[in-house]
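Chain particulars:
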Amino acid sequence: MQEHIVTSFDAELKDLSAKLGRMGGLAERQLSDSVLALSRQDEPLALATIRSDDAIDRLEMDVEESAIVLIAKRQPMAADLREIVTGIKIASDLERIGDLAKNIAKRVVAIRGEMQPKRIMTGVEHMSRLAMAQLHDVLDAFTRRDVEMALDVWNRDSEIDAMYNSIFRELLTYMMEDPRNISLCTHLLFAAKNVERIGDHSTNIAENVHFLVKGQLIGADRPKQDSTSFANVEPPMDDDD
């Protein structure tokens, strides 16, 4: 009987992990599609990306419900409890990444038909590739329970911050040179900020992987390099986010 209970509990933990894996895959796809829509000014892709966020939201609720049932039914201790609590936290970060990717897609609709500065878009695309690699690697780290890979992701967050600082300064220059650029540049600025925040959420996941495996927090300050006046500003999100 006891063996059956343990086997059943293990299966439930694996199911929770599988749901997080599906969430991660959806978040990666949503980020990739939103940036592609922005760079190509592809409104149909942007709209499809916006709609796809519902699937991530539903999975987050499913993960939370499963975790609550597991805690109530199994009353797990130590490593098993860390597994469940970490799962809830990672689901929250992935849901937020989905929201931020959706917000990037909404910028595509807002600036449709406007000419985008090529140099700025090149910077945003490069920054987005860094964020996508960071998200992909941290999800691998979670799947493998690989602390070294998680720490590598954690340390790479400063690269995204440095790129954001550069884009921020260039966009300010465009706005000062011609006030007609202000609306477009503001949308691009918040798109870049969304990407930077996605990097922060990937870094959160890296910290949770470390906690899951080691049972303790990373004992160092996060390597942040966002020196802009927007450093602590959340990008505006729509009411339905």
